[in-house]
């Protein structure tokens, strides 16, 4: 499978100091007008004057990117099919590369190893993160229900006893 | 990016505190860590202090298998 290099298919946009006011206006106008008014829908005007109506997805992208940039945050735009290096994948999950590699070796996230190096699909990272979140949420819910049933909230409502 | 924080036995002792900390962690504010040693000690202390059987306790404790990635 051809690797769609994250470096070429993904781009990072960082806010530029002199464009803060323009971007803030952009956010305000996009938010105030919304996706549709009686007079029309949001549109882009190309350099040659051609007017193109924005589909909802493009409107969403512009609004989200502009909002982040206006808060001084950088934005990375990458297709879900992008194949990331292990370092890029670790950065995405906010963990170290060795920790990511251990997760890959346990088979918890699919990877491809066409040669010497491993690659991870961005979509698989997003899926993994969502599954993890759901398992944690469920575990916390179960734990709370069981602890309530056992009266643990009341019986441990004091400083921990000294054990040594 | 979420920083790791180690929660030891005296932190995890209070169910209210554990509940609160894990909810904050669930929102991505930090990455909670604990060890098998901490869990074993917590189990011993709770058996004694809350008068629960090990079987009952097992489902009340935050263990690594149930908080994957922690």
Structural description of this entry:
The complex is a heterodimer of chains A (164) and B (70). With 164 residues, chain A is mostly helical. Chain A folds into two domains: 11-77, no CATH class; 83-149, Multidrug-efflux Transporter Regulator, Chain: A, Domain 2 (Orthogonal Bundle), CATH 1.10.1660. Helices cover 50% and strands 11% of the residues of chain A. Chain A contains seven helices and six strands, in the order H-E-H-E-E-H-E-E-H-H-E-H-H. Chain A has helices at 6-9, 20-33, 56-70, 86-93, 97-105, 122-149, 152-155; strands spanning 11-13, 43-45, 51-53, 75-77, 83-85, 119-121. In chain A, the strands form three sheets. Chain A has a two-stranded antiparallel ribbon. A two-stranded antiparallel ribbon of chain A has the order 2-3. A two-stranded antiparallel sheet of chain A has the order 5-6. The longest helix of chain A is centred in the last third of the chain and has 28 residues, at 122-149. The mean pLDDT of chain A is 85. Chain B is mainly alpha-helical and 70 residues long. Chain B has one domain (7-58). Helix content of chain B is 51%, strand content 11%. Chain B has helices at 9-12, 15-26, 36-50, 54-58, and strands at 3-6, 30-33. Chain B has a two-stranded parallel sheet. The longest helix of chain B is centred in the middle third of the chain and has 15 residues, at 36-50. Chain A binds chain B through residues 94, 132-133, 135-137, 139-140, 142-144, 146-147, 150-153, 155-161, 163, and chain B through 1-2, 9-11, 13-16, 19, 22-23, 26, 31, 41, 45-46, 49-52, 56-57, 59-62, 66-70.
